[in-house]
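Q: What structure does this chain adopt?
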Amino acid sequence: MAFLKERPASLLEVEDLHMNFGGIHALTDLSLHVYEGQILSVIGPNGAGKTTLLNCISGIYRAQKGVIRFLDKDLMRMSPCRIARLGIARSFQNIALFRGMTVLDNLLIGQGLHLRYGLLSAALYRGRALKEEVKGRDRVEELIEFLDLQHVRKAPVASLSYGIQKKIELGRALAMEPRLLLIDEPVSGMNIEETEDMARYILDINEELGMTIILIEHDMGLVMDISHRVTVLNFGVKIAEGPPEEIAKNPEVIKAYLGEEEA
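A:
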């Protein structure tokens, strides 16, 4: 998809967000905007609050203070299920698949969010239930082809390599057909070839499927290559934000995260 030269519309807005765990300030006065059609990467040292931010957006955590708006709807008091139905999906750093089930069945679980039929229709497996199940399976088959998983579609997840399982984790989130995709460290533990493949998939998701993405990742090469904007956190505080080329040269970012040589 071609990106507009002018700033696109804001899809998600976070304002003055505070998240505490007892005396630990995980996020402090955090504000950011996620623009339609862009990839926003959130980086920072371990413990900077990156995953906490995703947990607040997806409803797993409830922040003590602040505003989170998605499509002008306040998410602060919504359940994770309702937030997902609005169009926000996520993949997790630690793979959370059903290991005894096939690739196909794991992806079909993501489509379950869109099934709308009653108990009788489900029991008879006809009418609306049949139509929606067929539609959902067709969508999943498209994702299997998109992610190059055809050769393992009926294999149990537990029998597959770590890199393929990470793709399946991403695919299950895509099966929810989100408008905003939250991706938490998609290439952690991967080799160079697997990392390059995942970077290509993320770009294709953004460009071909038109999804807006918030990405958390420690691989700075990947972040700088595929991001439109980068937000940097340190101890729960935003210390920088801007295009990748500016972030790479920011002295405060270099000192806090990217590393600074001692004199």
